[in-house]
Amino acid sequence: MKIKKIYPCVIGLGYVGLPLFLQIQKKFETIGFDINKQRIKQLNNKFDINNEYKRKNLIKQNSSKFVYDPNKIKKCNFYIICVPTPLKNKNIPNLDSIKKSCILIGKVLNKNDIVFLESTVYPGVTEKFCAPIIEKVSKLKKNIDFYIGYSPERVNPGDNVHKVNKIKKIVSCKTTNLTIKSIILKVYKSVTKKIIYSKKIQETETAKLIENIQRDLNIALMNEIYLACEKLKINFFEVKRLAETKWNFKKFSPGMVGGHCLPVDPYY
């Protein structure tokens, strides 16, 4: 099996997908797809409503494109799903956007194409939820006709230090096909040089979750200690200052849990 031209498609151009697209397009002709026509129009006019990127950062390279028409992703062969995974009532995971993305990909998938999921999910979604949908729609078989993997997003909106091209990124695919592995690494090394490769997809999905759960628990712990200090009329901030002089003390502060991930991910 020869390495063909790599033609990536990033599905979902929010705070996860857009940074990924902008990095990959520096090396490959890339399609950035989103169902939100207004979002595509804004990006084509070099405007990011999230204010993460300025006009000069949104210049497309290597004939790359932002599109909302599904017909324009047909020639792609490396699909990366970066869609939201919110919660339904009673904190039940909502995988509707992932399901729609898998159906979309299944309709255009060809033999030896690669599909990666970046959205935060519970263990097993990549192989037991996504793969069967893609197989059913495409009539192709996982790890025989097409390949599927998982690479958890680690984007921190507004953080200029830990940008996607400066962090370590886990990339996971259960395949012994060296050509496919080479293609996967080529694509993700265009994002960051710091790649950690694993053949264990469910372990990778779980690792993403505990990254955020650990942070959530640490903030919750500091909230409890703060409340205890208030009742005991002890200066919490002096307690924290003194505790932080120990080399292995984790520097968390009390406060509300916000952002895109922490209010959602622990339920997954």
Which radius of gyration do the C-alpha atoms yield?
A: 20 Å
Give the helices and strands as they follow along the chain. Answer: EHEHEEHEHEEHEHH
Overall average residue pLDDT = 94
Care to count the β-strands?
8
Largest sheet composition: 8 strands, mixed
Oligomeric state of this protein: single chain
N-to-C CA distance: 38 Å
Class of secondary structure makeup: alpha/beta
Textual characterization of the structure:
It is a single chain. The protein has an eight-stranded mixed sheet with strand order 3-2-1-4-5-6-7-8, sandwiched between helices. Helices cover 35% and strands 12% of the residues. The relative contact order is 0.12. Helix 3 crosses helix 4. It is globular. Strand 1, helix 1 and strand 2 form a beta-alpha-beta unit. The longest helix is centred in the last third of the chain and has 32 residues. It has 268 residues and is an alpha/beta fold.
Helix and strand arrangement:
Blueprint: E1 8-11, H1 17-24, E2 31-33, H2 37-44, E3 65-67, E4 78-81, H3 96-108, E5 114-117, H4 125-138, E6 147-150, E7 169-173, H5 178-189, E8 195-198, H6 201-232, H7 236-243
Parallel strand pairs: 1-2, 1-4, 2-3, 4-5, 5-6, 7-8
Antiparallel strand pairs: 6-7
Helix pairs in contact: 3-4
